[in-house]
Amino acid sequence: MTETGTGPAPTGQVAALARARGLGAWVERTFLPKKGLFLRKWEGSRLYFFVGGLVVTGPGDFAAAYDWRTASVLQSVTSVNGVVQEARYTVFDRSGAAVGLGRGGDMLFPRQHAGLGITSLVKGAPFTFEGDWGPYIQQRIAEERGAEVLADLERGGTVPFGAVTLSRSGVTVQERSAAWDGLGDVRASDGQVLFPDAGGRRQALPSVPATHVANLVLFLAVCRHVGAA
Predict the structure, then answer these.
(1) CA–CA dist 76, 103 (Å, integer)
(2) Rounded distance between C-alpha atoms, residue 22 and residue 3, angstroms
(3) What is the pTM of this model?
């Protein structure tokens, strides 16, 4: 993350939760909520980062911990002329518990939550410096889970990334599939994930909103690796 100040150290409750989840040491990065007349309810909220994951706190003694090895994240980032206007990240794990962080509303309809395994969603604070902590969450999940995903694919398994599923043979979107050798550079552009064919002349598969692709950074890295193999 960019140098943004360490922020307050974890409280005893947060440190105990991090220990219980095996998240390791605090990496001396804690983010505070944005300030404003209509944001006072978030004043006590904190976003703490540890070597192995994060802990987020909120009103009413809310506290949730996420391990990079089992967490997933969805993102919705709106920019104008390269300046972020809204950024929202929804973090969830295999238990189905999700928390939304940042500015903006829920990016999915309730019926889409079930497809991702989300069973509950808590709205969290609009934390400062989302341009630091948001990409950091994506990157740490990619680093921790990349080898596992590639191994699953090599064994012949399928790996879902929200609206897209990867396998050793190719990519599936909306019940349509394309083989890796028929795909070009899978990429994200203007809020959409694009699947050009190998010749780059047309789309081999329907585009998908980037907000519907879990672990977008990991997904794109896996596509680059497998597609180039």
Answers:
(1) 9
(2) 25
(3) 0.94
Residue pLDDT, tens place only, 23-71: 999 999 999 999 988 899 999 999 999 999 999 999 999 999 999 999 9
> C-alpha distances in angstroms, 210 versus 75, 133, 159?
7, 18, 17
Q: For residue range 163-215, what is the model confidence (pLDDT) as tens digits? A: 999 999 999 998 999 999 999 999 999 889 999 999 888 999 999 999 999 99
Residue 207 Cα to chain centre, angstroms = 19
Task: Note whether 220 and 187 are within 8 A (CB).
Answer: yes
Long-range contacts of 20-26 (CB under 8 A, 24+ apart): 20/65, 21/52, 21/53, 21/65, 21/67, 22/52, 22/67, 23/50, 23/51, 23/52, 23/53, 23/54, 23/55, 23/65, 23/67, 24/50, 24/51, 24/52, 25/50, 25/51, 26/50
**Residues counted in the chain:** 229
Residue 17 CA: distances (Å) to CA of 62, 67, 69, 98, 100: 12, 11, 16, 17, 19
